[in-house]
Structure formats: C-alpha cells, structure tokens
Write a structure and sequence with these properties.
Strand content: under 5%
Number of helices: 5
Radius of gyration: 17 Å
Shape: elongated
Distance between the termini: 34 Å
Low-confidence stretches: none
Structural class: mainly alpha
Largest sheet: 2 strands, parallel
Strand order of the largest sheet: 1-2
Helix content: 55-70%
Amino acid sequence: MRARGVAESETLARLRPRCPTLKSPVVPEDPPPVLTARETELAALAAAGRTDAEIAAETRLSIRTVQTHLSNAYHKLGIRSRAELALRLDEPSGLRTQQGT
C-alpha cells in the first residue's frame, strides 16, 4: 500500500507543472512555504518598512545576516521585493513558520 502512495505522489509531482491551474479535491495543492521563526520575524519588520540596517540594530544581527534571512524568505515565497513581501504577509494563508525554530 505504501508503494502505491509513493507512486501517486511521484505522478502528482510530475503532472502538477503541466497543469498549474488544476483545482481538485483529489489533487492536493502545494502547501504554503514554511519560513523559519527568524525569517518570519525579519520579514515582518521588512514589510513594515524598516531598512536592513534598522532591522539589524533592533535584532542585534549583522546587516549581512538580515539580508541572508530576507533573501531566503524571498526565495521560499517566490517574491522579489519588500512590496511583494508586504502583500504576501497580508494574505490569510500567507506564511507558515517552522515550530521550534
């Protein structure tokens, strides 16, 4: 039975890119991206309009570390700007955060 589930998952993974608008209760949607607690924290500060330097000072991180966390969050969310980040944070299904990070 487990082999069948794995085969179905592989088939779905292969077919989903061909049918990006497919909506079906049989075919589950991709879950929202999962950000670390730190990525979520810094994303919220960036979306609120703070600069990298302001975020770094407030969180006692280096500017480069802030930039790395934000870059990771942008990549996971498939976005490219703070404006897109702010819009994404406002979505009801917006972000999930890893537990314990």
